[in-house]
DNA sequence: TTAACAATTATCATTTTGTTAATTATATAT
DNA sequence: ATATATAATTAACAAAATGATAATTGTTAA
């Protein structure tokens, strides 16, 4: 492939917007208060080869070049593991950023992925070596930084995609333990919506029993969120596609 | 960029799954019967340079290599215009196909896009020169062919994406004239759903008046679909995000 | 013993839906 | 001219879901 009739890119990378939903307050017998966080890394001053690094010192999305034997998805998985020690989580490709000029090093294509990481996986991260370069920020905080490359644009797109995914698919399961209470689910959903039918306790407690993709765990309760004890629910494997044309608007 | 520490792809392409919704039967004063179609091209025996073409004779998605001065999205737009003469339509990127081995010519990355083309734009296509190599097929037909490369997989993903988009966003507008009747909207939606609340006339006629993203065109009717004349509706620019957690299931 | 509190159930008026039927307006066939 | 067929639309009413507010339950901790 030497005499090419077409242009070849100068680099092919995979970036990952790692989201987690952190429990801000965790008191015994109390429903959690959660917030949506994104993981950023601070770019090093020097490359591994010892050269001055591009966009050094700026906060950026984790990611890196795709290796010869892998595709972008595998590269994203590998980078995520290297950065955080996390494996086997929910990750998806959601966009390509390939505008000429987006990276001063040349025509570098970024495959943007997002990942949903349950909170408890992050305990490992805290113990890892370069944890001082990796931080979680609320989305609002993150967007106020002077981020590297076009990462501000990528993050905005990722937030929009993940919001839609949490509300219109069963992706919330990736932020929850296998068995959860209604208030835990409510806490996850409330990080991305203000819908009163979800925020209102009574309405949501009634509704959860009618959702075909959630089932009650029979004869089992937890005191995680209440002294009285609360029923446990789990997602079954039903996937839902509800048209906006049949929803209620009032 | 000669001494690279990372692999560079052998080619960077953009493929487009062009969907249209064709009116199968169009009698005067009668609601249309529509079906979802995808556009395929038959790959030529020879390349422009006169060499034997890869995957020659097979049906494939339109697309081609990204040029040096454009990104994949612009390439998809350009290819679509070259193939069909269509401009200014709804097109989106939905996936990357970059598995090593997917293209025998090397490590060729495909950026998969889908486009939604209103029927009336296609009349131009019929008049174009190489129309004999371009055909519309129902999705079921298309998936039975021995398609080039991994295009079967790409098409399946595209259908899933477009179904979700038509039902959960206002993308149906791209298959309809600016002002449309309830039965025309119903015909579009029925190509991707069997939901009885949409298929049932009375229920849907009642519902359309309550949808916040659709408004009545005052004092204007059409006889396109009925001798009696039917009210006209239009989409306003409201975008909707309805959680599955607040929908009705019965 | 009691206050506090999350979870859950109860109540009831209001709204929406499912279902079936009736009405309307008009082109076409007779 | 008149009747017929047909799509759009409205009507009617029982059944179901929702909104709003209140009451009940079970447990810990003061």
From TrEMBL, chains A, B:
Keywords, comma-separated and alphabetical: Hydrolase
Residue ranges of the TM segments: none
SUPFAM superfamilies for this protein: Nudix, Winged helix' DNA-binding domain
Top-level taxon of the source organism: Bacteria
InterPro entries noted in UniProt: Nudix_hydrolase, NUDIX_hydrolase-like_dom_sf, NUDIX_hydrolase_CS, NUDIX_hydrolase_dom, WH-like_DNA-bd_sf, WH_DNA-bd_sf, WHD_NrtR
Residues covered by the Nudix hydrolase domain: 11-159
Family designation: Belongs to the Nudix hydrolase family.
Name assigned to this protein: ADP-ribose pyrophosphatase YjhB (NUDIX family)
Organism encoding this protein: Cytobacillus purgationiresistens
């Amino acid at each position: 492939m030497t005499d090419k009739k077409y242009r070849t890119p100068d680099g092919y990378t995979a970036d990952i917007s790692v989201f987690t939903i952190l429990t801000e307050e965790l008191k015994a017998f109390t429903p959690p208060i959660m917030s949506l966080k994104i993981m950023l890394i601070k770019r090093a001053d020097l490359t591994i080869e010892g050269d001055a690094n591009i966009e050094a010192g700026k906060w950026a999305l984790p990611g890196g070049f795709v290796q010869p034997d892998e595709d972008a998805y595998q590269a994203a998985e590998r980078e995520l593991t290297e950065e955080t020690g996390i494996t086997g989580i929910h990750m998806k490709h959601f966009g390509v950023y390939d505008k000429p000029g987006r990276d001063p090093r040349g025509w570098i294509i970024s495959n943007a992925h997002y990942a949903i990481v349950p909170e408890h996986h992050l305990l490992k991260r805290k113990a890892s070596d370069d944890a001082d370069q990796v931080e979680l920020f609320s989305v609002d905080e993150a967007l106020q930084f002077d981020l590297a490359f076009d990462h501000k644009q990528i993050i905005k797109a990722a937030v929009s995609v993940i919001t839609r995914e949490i509300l219109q698919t069963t992706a919330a399961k990736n932020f929850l333990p296998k068995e959860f209470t209604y208030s835990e689910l409510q806490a996850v959903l409330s990080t991305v919506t203000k819908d009163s039918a979800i925020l209102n306790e009574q309405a949501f407690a009634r509704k959860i029993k009618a959702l075909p993709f959630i089932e009650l765990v029979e004869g089992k309760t937890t005191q995680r969120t209440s002294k009285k004890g609360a029923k446990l629910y789990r997602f079954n494997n039903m996937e839902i596609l509800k048209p906006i044309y049949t929803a209620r608007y009032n």
